[in-house]
Amino acid sequence: MAIRSLFTKKKEDGQEKGFPEGLMTKCPECRHIQLTKELEKNNKVCSKCDHHFKMTAQERVACFLDEGSFVSMDDHLQTSNPLNFPAYVEKISADQQKTGLNEAVLTGIGTLDGEEIVVAIMDSHFRMGSMGSVVGEKITRAIEKATELRVPFIIFTASGGARMQEGVLSLMQMAKTSVALKRHSDEGLLFISILTHPTTGGVSASFASVGDINIAEPQALIGFAGRRVIEETVREKLPSDFQTAEFLLAHGQLDAIFHRKDLRNQVAVLVKMHTKGGVQHV
Amino acid sequence: MSKNLAFEEPVVQLREKIDELKTIATEADVDMTGEIEKLETRLTQLEQSIYANMKPWDRVQVARHPERPTTLQYIEAMCENFIELHGDRTFGDDAAILGGIAFFEGQPITIIGHQRGKSTKENIRRNFGMPHPEGYRKALRLMKQAEKFKRPIICFIDTKGAYPGKAAEERGQSEAIARNLVEMAGLTVPVISIVIGEGGSGGALALGVANRVFMLENSTYSVISPEGAASILWRDGSLAKQAAEAMRITAPDLKELGVIDGIIPEITGGAHRNVAKQALNIKECISDTLKALNCLNGQQLIEDRYEKFKKIGQYTEA
Asked: I need a labelling partner for B286 at 20 to 30 A (CA). Which of A105, A135, B39, B123 fits?
């Protein structure tokens, strides 16, 4: 896993333009080299070994929602530096430049095969998708919007966990998003959590795991504590598939794993099963 | 195991004879239409007499037939867009119980059922359709999910019983079954259970606290397997056939005892002879029943279930 993330970082910096290597991308799993354009056409799935590359939030919008339907929310929220952490603000603005996002999550309203939904898409290219006050606030507002509109809420998670630089305030975002989800759920509304690579720490220990339906992408790393921490604690080698989506499915934590090529359609069907015409019984 | 069962032998032999005659007729180019017709009439009569007079033990054999259609086959034949949902969110995903959401005649429903394997390999993976506690907990999770979204629930029962194993005990097999019985009693959505094969004891009942319970004509539903009963009653498992007679485990028996609400007719010779047609019979039953149950509100459904199970039992008051 560690090796995988090293490679991905290099490739997905968004700065390939101008470099000859940018034309081609090497799969970190099978080392197959393919045209970057072809890879993008294939929803960033390796044509040879089905490795699912990380996606940016904008790429996710493009391949998941109906074309042109997405309207983003709360792009104006700005991260402050509550603990006066050195270089924090600079790091945030560097990532803002890099990703074109105000924080590690993009939220908004859109339609999925015609059904209105509210989505939140976490982007691991922004501070490893870690959750600080702005991420927590944006997700909470998105959930509230879904409750207000009485529509499903769908989240794509991708996060290393809580944002260390905001300390306990980050931890509390887990609670804040949860109380909002409870209100959404009590209204009888649908919440689908789609766990993508990687979903760990405080994010996996809060909203990511409590969907009415939990879905993951193949081979996604999902877990609470990091592999190294666990290995050091229990002093034994962990199995190679430990904390993969497949491992979680076998251990009862996921409803399903969908290949990216099927994801949009399957989720659209699930949404339809829970919305219009879905309920006939009084 | 051969595809044909012992009690069907005369039918099979006659059918073979007819086929043989037909082959000879074509090869030798002689006209035997008269003879063939006669034999075919005889075959129909024979089939009627044999299949109409099936003994309980015969039905047990049909219910256990290796090619008897499973939950998944019926779901695929009856529903659109079935999406399987896995896991109890706690311990594991039990392949002996399968569940998910599908469209049934345009209406989203939750379907849950025991799932046997079709091959030895699949049977090992699915533990021969004998669930562990996590299977029942997955079933309950999906029922609660259905309740939240006001979807009717269809359960297919097809198990020899809950798995009697060490791990199952450690994880609370009894608690898991017991919890399902209580929670199913309180569901505010319509629940229909259908025994499609074997309905083995508590492991079956844990998907069976429904507003309406149906059985396929050749399925069985009992407190214990005939072998188990024979072993307890007479300390001899080989007396299973007698136990099957004595225990009243067939669909007509249970109908008479007031345990089930109806019998879904089977294809002559058993459901495995025509899965598509059998699925149609089941679909019709579910469709009619849902139409009736969909008119009831949550509280009425709970009371309806209460009344149904309150009535079961026979006693006298001195």
From this structure: B123
